[in-house]
Amino acid sequence: MQIFLIGFMGSGKTYWGDLWSRSGEFAFVDLDELIESKEKKTISKIFEEKGEQYFRELEAATLRSVTDKKDIIISCGGGTPCFHDNMQWMNAHGVTVYLKASPQHLAKRLMKERQKRPVLSGLNDDELVNFIDQKVKERESFYSRAKIILNVEEMKDKEMPEAIRSI
């Protein structure tokens, strides 16, 4: 089984995916880390040097390359579901799980990481919330196609939720 974790940056895709994989049932792959490893550059550098179109094509190809593995949790980038029919493809090849959070919750988590995320680095607190709110609204039509939607603000248990375990 392949589980694709989707959601906006800061929703905890890498955190929860890594944690759940420790149960021993699943391997874990962070799609952005895999891309950075293959390209030997950060995502920011890839965007800067080759542009978003190149990155999105690389992302789609990398996504499709990891699904030859069984029993894997794949943490996808925040924009992954929105390009190259990736959401439709993920739904056809596994279980998509949307880690949903309010813009305020995401902003609280991302405030500490602003300098690591170039798209957020120049934004003050109010601008950050507005930016997140706008982007989440733009992407919601993709995110909401997930087979399972989990509200991360309510997830306190460190074990894989029953909704995922029972698939």
Would you give an account of this structure?
The structure is a single chain. The protein has 167 residues and is α/β, with parallel strands linked by helices. It has a single domain (2-160), classed as 3-Layer(aba) Sandwich (Rossmann fold), CATH 3.40.50. 49% of the residues lie in helices and 14% in strands. The chain has helices spanning 13-21, 31-39, 43-66, 86-93, 103-110, 125-143, 162-165, and strands spanning 2-6, 27-30, 72-75, 95-100, 148-151. It has a five-stranded parallel beta sheet with strand order 2-3-1-4-5, with helices on both faces. α2 packs across α3 and α5 (103-110) packs across α6. It starts with a strand and ends with a helix.
Would you spell out the secondary-structure blueprint of this structure?
Blueprint: E1 2-6, H1 13-21, E2 27-30, H2 31-39, H3 43-66, E3 72-75, H4 86-93, E4 95-100, H5 103-110, H6 125-143, E5 148-151, H7 162-165
Parallel strand pairs: 1-3, 1-4, 2-3, 4-5
